Amino acid sequence: MELLSLETQLRQNAYPGRGIVLGKSADNQYAIAAYFIMGRSENSRNRIFVEDGEGIRTQAYDPAKLSDPSLIIYAPVRVLGNKTIVTNGDQTDTIYEGMDHQQTFEQSLRCREFEPDAPNYTPRISGIMHVEQGSYNYAMSILKSANGNPAACSRYTFAYENPQAGEGHFIHTYMGDGNPLPSFCGEPEWIKIEGDIDEFAGRIWDSLHPENKVSLFVRYIDIANGSYESRILNKHK
Description:
237 residues, Glutamine Phosphoribosylpyrophosphate, subunit 1, domain 1, six-stranded antiparallel sheet, five-stranded antiparallel sheet, 5 helices, 13 strands, 41% strand
């Protein structure tokens, strides 16, 4: 597998949809998470990220224009002890509740599948970061229809122990624009991670398609002590 430039991957794809990046900073100090959302419709573009406790949630920028909240209003990021959960839907809550009752990341998603938005059947992508006493590992999941067949759900989990400095993985919902939208396929992309939180966030934001990008969240967690700092960028201000 080739080590890729995240910026290049984003610039070459006008519509990756929603994306999760998990990895480790080049100086080996921080566990890193990024989550972005994009939109083609007015309803999807009418959103911002706002802080919600230790996590974030989506919110309508103009409540009067919100036509259907079912798949666009949710908490993408929640924190459970030393675990940070990042997803593209309300399965954040499913993972949080499952792991709070001693289920594994994978077990907690067994009751969920792809989104019911025919004909796209958008995959549910999820990530979990575990930072504890100087150690760090993460996992990613994708739940997708079986080649567009809504009668079958394909479930994939990818776990990464002892991630290497300056490297991470990127998973997103779509391989590009289209009708229906083509679902992500294959393993999460192996990508380089460089810079401090503002540099990293800026490079992602500037690489997303200017018309389709909506919001971006980035968090750097100090692996030694669990403290963190975050950035939120919204197209609507």
